[in-house]
Specification:
Elements lengths: L20 H20 L14 E6 L6 H9 L4 E5 L6 H13 L3 E7 L4 H6 L27 E6 L7 H15 L8 E5 L35 H11 L5 E6 L32 H15 L4 E5 L18 H14 L10 E6 L4 H10 L4 E5 L8 E6 L2
Parallel strand pairs: 1-2, 1-9, 2-3, 3-5, 5-6, 6-7, 7-8, 8-9
Antiparallel strand pairs: 4-10
Bound molecules: zinc ion (ZN).
Length: 391
């Protein structure tokens, strides 16, 4: 059964621009109607515990932070601003950002992209994530040359923390970046602490469970399921008593399987012919998630970027409402694979601002998440294949 909600991407119920009174009423009713009709079917645990309003955070690039913009965000109901922190932003700029955000009484979070790092990938090609043994990713890169026996194909520019060398380099980088930020920030969001996209080779950008899946390693593998848990521990030691919040990606879904693996029903095609969504991946996901959440209290970010993940086909649950699928993935997968269900109020869900952010914010609120992060910065999740020598 297809148990995930399907949200129409267009139509008056989710229209935001040019609201007539009738339309704005429909907009208000939309999430309630959705929850009510969904409840009649099969409500995943937690979706009903929806009454407390989540913290509202807007995620932006540093140059978007002006005093006028901060006042606008405040008017728009945001309680906090998360700002992308990377090598482009020096100490003086960090001070200015801190002054502008806290000057208006909003909380400041820094957002650091970890694994997707073009500079590190170019400097250390051997640290990149590999595309696993399956070749289904090729459907998105037709004509890409075959690797020979002494080569391995990597997902440029993804440098996950799963090689010891990369783990250390990332830790050093986070520490270096944080030194630029004056006191006064509330927390740090660390994105992409899992393996790279298409990790088994299926081509799905959300396939993150595997590392060097049946291909040769090109650096020193960090064994175990707890790389992210260890990374967070180390970052916490280096950031005083601030909140350090990992941001996580859910894996391939049942609807991504080929038709022959779903009783002939069509699906998104995101996993090509590979059955990873119901194969090894839910178990590996549960082990990695459990290692993280048992080692650390506090919130966990959940990337629900429907366009970045190509979750745009409304007939398969895509569109701005896809965030409910990401939450439902946790509700379903963790208990089914020996993990513990996560309380929704621990989730900080990251949604794109594609003009339908109001609907996404409402849905997140109904789902009872602790915070909704509306990103106006581009959180790139793409990759390009690159073949390197495995020697
Ligand atoms: Zn896969």
């Amino acid at each position: 059964m297809h148990w995930l909600p399907q949200i129409a991407e267009s139509g008056p119920a989710v229209s935001v621009a040019g609201l007539s009174p009738g339309r704005s009423l429909r907009l208000l009713l939309f999430p309630a109607m959705f929850v009510a009709s969904f409840a009649a079917q099969q409500l995943p645990p937690g979706l009903e515990q929806a009454n407390r309003k989540p913290v509202q955070i807007v995620l932006v690039e540093p140059d978007a932070v002006t005093s006028a913009a901060v006042s606008e965000w405040k008017k728009d109901g945001f309680n906090a601003v998360a700002v992308v922190l990377d090598e482009r932003t020096g100490e003086a700029a960090c001070r200015e950002i801190t002054r502008k955000v806290s000057g208006d009484g909003l909380d400041l979070y820094w957002w650091i992209e970890v694994a997707r790092n073009p500079n590190l990938a170019a400097a250390h090609p051997g640290w990149m994530a590999s595309l696993g043994m399956h070749e289904d990713w090729r459907k998105n890169f037709p004509g890409f040359p075959q690797a020979n026996a002494s080569e391995v194909t990597k997902a440029f520019p993804w440098v996950p923390i799963n090689y010891c060398e990369a783990f250390d380099a990332h830790l050093e980088r986070v520490e270096r970046l944080l030194k630029r930020a004056p006191p006064g920030w509330r927390g740090l969001l660390l994105n992409d602490l899992q393996a790279g996209p298409s990790s088994c080779g299926c081509g799905n950008l959300q396939c993150r469970w595997a590392f060097d899946y049946r291909v040769n390693a090109t650096a020193t593998k960090l064994e175990g399921d707890d790389a992210a848990a260890r990374f967070i521990t180390e970052v916490r030691k280096r950031s005083g008593n601030k909140a350090v919040i990992p941001v996580w990606t859910t894996e391939c879904e049942e609807v991504d399987l080929p038709a022959e693996k779903r009783q002939g029903r069509s699906g998104t095609g995101l996993c090509g012919t590979v059955g990873c969504a119901t194969g090894t991946c839910p178990g590996a996901f549960t082990r990695q998630w459990s290692a993280l959440t048992s080692a650390h209290d506090g919130p966990v970010g959940l990337l629900a970027l429907h366009t970045a993940f190509r979750r745009t086909q409304t007939e398969f649950g895509g569109g701005p409402g896809w965030l409910t699928n990401a939450i439902a993935y946790l509700d379903k997968t963790l208990p089914a694979n020996g993990g513990r269900a996560i309380s929704h109020d621990r989730l900080w869900i990251v949604v794109e601002d594609t003009g339908k952010a109001a609907a996404s914010r409402e849905l997140a609120s109904k789902a009872g998440v602790g915070a909704v992060i509306v990103t106006r910065a581009r959180i790139d999740q793409s990759y390009e294949p690159r073949t390197i020598s495995a020697k």
